[in-house]
Amino acid sequence: MADLRFERTEKMIQFAFLDLLKTTPYEKISIAKLARVSMVDRTTFYAHFDNLSELADTLIENALAPFVAAFLESKEQKMKRNFDSYTFFSHELVDHLLSNRSQIETVRELPLGANSFDHRLRKLFTETYTTFLKLPETDFTIFLFVNLAMANFDFILKNSRVPSKKELQLGLKRMESFLK
């Protein structure tokens, strides 16, 4: 059974880190400063995380978890033939994104290169589309779908809704006219 005090302290450290990131660049956050802000001592911080990178990674994993769940659900739907390739962003996922927008936007800003939120989300989209479309990840179609998914994600965060299929079709027609 999990120790609730341990879990509560870990969450407190995570929330303090997110709050600190709103005013302080990641590179300027020290464990001492985070410990002070989260009202724990450094020893307590190290009981939960080895370093700030591990803490950042935990936040990214938590932010990506609903995507992983949505993709698994989509995979199950595809097996049942109830799959719509455009609707990865289920109502539950969209609600989660909108309810946690500030936290997600903060996590997206973490400068972690290949371990960053956006990089890892792109990788999830790539893996999902290569599986569903049965195309190699180097196929240009995969790049288009991944970028469309990232654009949907950005659109949802900015406009608080999923773009409709009609909006997608209109956007693609406009793009096509520019390519002529």
From TrEMBL:
Domain HTH tetR-type residue range list: 7-67
InterPro entries named in the record: Homeodomain-like_sf, HTH-type_Tx_Regulator, HTH_TetR
Top-rank taxon, per record: Bacteria
The keyword DNA-binding appears for this protein: yes
Keywords on record: DNA-binding
DNA-binding region: 30-49
Molecular function GO labels: DNA binding
Protein name: HTH tetR-type domain-containing protein
